[in-house]
Amino acid sequence: MKKTAVLLYPQYSEYELSVALSILMQGGKPVVTVGGNMQPIRGESGLTCLPDTTVDEINIDEIDSLLLTGCMDVFALENEKTLIEFIGDIESKVTIIGSISSSPYLLAKAGVLKGKRYTIGMTEEDRGKSVILEKENYSEELVVQDGKLITARGRGFIRFGVCFGKALNLEFDESWYRE
């Protein structure tokens, strides 16, 4: 069975991944955590994770889906060329991309959001400052699926996880995740 790659970066939001990771576990879906390098990555609430592999070393042929979480300051990642290139490179090889909170900004930087309906956990002011977010495709919905792309606001992490699991056709007990 192919794996879900979970892309991690400094100040990643742990809680936004919690339901999606639980559903992947219930569905027996293997997960590989991916970092820019093999250094420990500290999340926004202090949880430190050591990635399984790096964006340069991952075997993309073993991956069928990508999961991204938001982070405290997504603009701090704006010039992380290796992360952005990885997202752009893997986009054509995966069947599902799940991106929550501020991380759709990284998808936009990689060209993945072009022409797609999306939502994002950014203020209207921050969205307005961005020249790469297509304003005409933005939705106020909590979770938006457009083809293989699933985006959500951070507070929609339960629905996001359920939608991600269903998109992967996983068997899981949805009653575990009632809002």
Key structural traits:
seven-stranded mixed β-sheet, 20% strand, single chain, 9 strands, two-stranded antiparallel ribbon, 179 residues, globular, 5 helices, alpha/beta
Topology (elements, then pairings):
Blueprint (H helix, E strand, L loop, with lengths): L2 E5 L6 H13 L4 E5 L5 E2 L5 E2 L3 E2 L8 E6 L12 H11 L4 E5 L3 H6 L14 H6 L13 E4 L2 E4 L4 H11 L12
Parallel strand pairs: 1-2, 1-6, 2-5, 6-7, 7-9
Antiparallel strand pairs: 3-4, 8-9
Helix pairs in contact: 1-5
Folded structure, characterized:
The chain has 179 residues and is of the alpha/beta class. The chain has helices at residues 14-26, 81-91, 104-109, 124-129, 157-167; strands at 3-7, 31-35, 41-42, 48-49, 53-54, 63-68, 96-100, 143-146, 149-152. It has a 7-stranded mixed beta sheet with strand order 5-2-1-6-7-9-8, sandwiched between helices. A two-stranded antiparallel ribbon has the order 3-4. Helix 1 links the parallel strand 1 (3-7) and strand 2 (31-35). The longest helix is centred in the N-terminal third of the chain and has 13 residues, at 14-26. It starts with a strand and ends in a 12-residue tail after the last helix. The model has no long low-confidence stretch (mean pLDDT 95).
